[in-house]
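Adenylosuccinate synthetase, Geoalkalibacter subterraneus. C-alpha cells?
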Amino acid sequence: MANVVIVGAQWGDEGKGKVVDIYTEYADEVVRYQGGNNAGHTLVVGEEKTILHLIPSGILHEGKRCVIANGVVLDPRVFLQEIENLKKRGYLKDDSQLVVDGNTHIIMPYHVAIDKARESGAGRKIGTTGRGIGPTYEDKIGRRGIRFADLVQPEVFARKVREFLPEKNFLLEKYLGQAPLDEQEIISEYGGYAERLKQYLGSASVLLNRTIEEGKSVLFEGAQGSLLDIDHGTYPYVTSSSTVAGGACTGAGIGPRLIHEVIGISKAYVTRVGEGPFPSELDDEMGDRLRQAGQEFGSTTGRPRRTGWLDAVALREAVRINGMTGLAITKMDVLNDLESIKVCTGYQYHQDLLTDYPHDLDVINQCRPVYEEIDGWCTDICDVTRWEELPPQAQAYLRKIEELAGCPVVLVSVGPRRDQTIQVKNPFQGE
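C-alpha cells:
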C-alpha cells in the first residue's frame, strides 16, 4: 500500500480538504504535518458543509485515526471548539481517533497579540490571518516555545509562561503600543484547556512508523500552498512553515523513503489571499466573475481572494520542488460558462521571456504574463463522473495543463460535493 502526500500547488485554498476527504477512504491514518489554524479546509458531504482549521479532514470518516504532528502549531481554544463542533454533529465518537504529538508547539495569547499588532501597525504588512502562527514559529526556532507536552504538565507550563511572558509584554508595551498580558490569567485559562486535551497526547512518529511497518497506508495532509513555503515561496509574503512535500518528513517524523506519491492540488485557475506577487492576477470584470462563480472568499477569514488565470510557470515550480507524481485539478466547473480560457505560459521581463519562476521580488513585480488562449466548453460538467464524459474542450484544457506542468492529472473536481469527482488514477492503488 502507498503513503501519499497532498500539497497545495499554488498559493493555498486549492481545495485540498475535498481531495483529502476523498483519499481518506483508501488510507488507514491521516496526518496534518504543518501550519496552524490559518488554514481552512472546506468539505461538502451531501448537502452538509464542514470547515476544519486544525483537525485533519479525514475525521469525517469513521474508524480513521487522525494525527496532528510535531510540525503543526496548535491553538488550544480553536482545537477544542473544533472537537465540540464535530461531536455535536455525530463525528469523533471515539476520542482515540485523534492524536496530538507532544512536540506540537502551542499558540499562546501573546503570539496572537503580537501578530495582530504587527499587521495593524505602520510597517510592511504581510497579509497574515492574525492567528499568531508566525510568532509561534519564531519562538519555536528561537527555542522559546511551549509544546503540547509542556501544556499538559501544569508546573512545567507555569514555569515557562513566567519565563517567557516578561519579554513578550516588553515587546507589546514598549514597541507595539499594546496592553500587557496577565501571567496568572494565561496560566489559569490554559490549565483548563490542558485538562480537557491531555487525553489526546501521543507520538506521531511512533504511531505513523508503526502503521507503515504493518503494511498500512498513511495520507499526509498539507496546508497552505507550495508558493507560500518559507524557503521556496514568494518570500517574505509566505507562511511560516514548510508547505512542500519534504515538510511531511520533518513535520511528522518519518523518513523520505516512506513517501510513495505526491499529489499537488491546483485550481483550474488561480487565487491568492493577502499580499505578495501574483503575475496572472485579473483586477477586472473577469477576475470578479471568477471570484463570484468560485465563491472565492477565505474559509478562515472571509477575505475576498485575488483571482487570475492559471499560471503554468508557477505550477511547474511547484511540481519541481515537490517532486509531484500527479495533479488534482479542482473547480473545473467554475469555468463552465467561459467561451475562452487563458493560461499563463511565461513571463515577459523587459526583452526576456522567462519560463522559470523568478524569486527576486523586483523581477516578479516587473513581469507581465504571456498567455495562450484555449476554447472553453460552455456547458455544465457538474454531473460528469468519467473522463470520457468530459467535453472535448475540457479534456484539451486538462491535457494542456499536463503538458505545461510536466505532470499527469490524476483527479478532476467538477463541483464541491464528494461525489462530484473524476478519479483518473488512484495514487493508493496505482490505477
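The chain has two domains: 4-93+203-423, 105-200.
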